[in-house]
Amino acid sequence: MFLSVFIVGACGYLMRNNSVEVETELYNNYGETQGEAAMGFAEFQNVKVQLRNILYIYAGDDTNLQAAKKSIDEAKDIVNEYMTEVKSDLKDSGTKKNIDAYFDDTDKCIEYFDAGKIQDARNYLHDNGVKSANTAEENIKKLINEIDKYAQKKQNYVTEQNKIGDYFVAVVMLLALLNACV
User: Fold this and answer.
1) I need a surface site. Which of 39, 62, 92, 179 has the fewest CB within 10 A?
2) 36 in helix, strand or coil?
3) Residue 46, number of CB atoms within 10 A of its CB
4) pTM of the model
5) What is the pLDDT of residues 65-86, one digit of tens each?
């Protein structure tokens, strides 16, 4: 009887420790990384909004133009920082390259704008920037979904292992009860 209680207790302890370790690993490897990718995505959207504001709303408004340009530079730095962290955590399939392509298009639009070629800047955005932005955006969304998919697979595996452990503990308890009754 004592042996059965010891086995049940040891199984429970090991299962709990395994769950805690796996949950920590899930957060560190997937949750935190997914959060970084999502924050990068939010700042990427900020670049798009500020570029639109520069090209269509703030023409002639130097105060807002300068603030929008500064916001773009800051957002690009934040995106690069987050995506570098994501890349170090995962084997990414070129998301950063696509983001950089859009940032190059953003710089070109601002270059046209600063040269007084506002319509050329708008045309460049329409002909090039929209496509590169959409490609980068889709890559970021795909990356976030892949992170979620990997985490879900890991969580499902842990859940299955815990069920097996629960069954084992239940069988040992049942055997202990049967042994006690005999």
Assistant:
1) 62
2) helix
3) 17
4) 0.74
5) 999 999 999 999 999 888 877 7
Burial class (CB in 10 A: 0-12, 13-18, 19+), 176: middle
User: DSSP string of 64-124?
Assistant: HHHHHHHHHHHHHHHHHHHHHHHHHHS---SHHHHHHHHHHHHHHHHHHHHTT-HHHHHHH
Contact (CB, 8 A) for 26 and 151 = yes
Helix (H) or strand (E) holding 35: helix 32-52
Q: Are 54 and 113 in contact (CB under 8 A)?
A: yes
Give the separation between CA 161 and CA 182, rounded to whole angstroms: 32
pLDDT digits (tens, 9 = 90+) for 8-36: 666 666 666 666 676 777 767 777 778 88
DSSP label of 31: I
30's CB contacts (< 8 A; 6+ apart) are 147, 148, 150, 151, 154
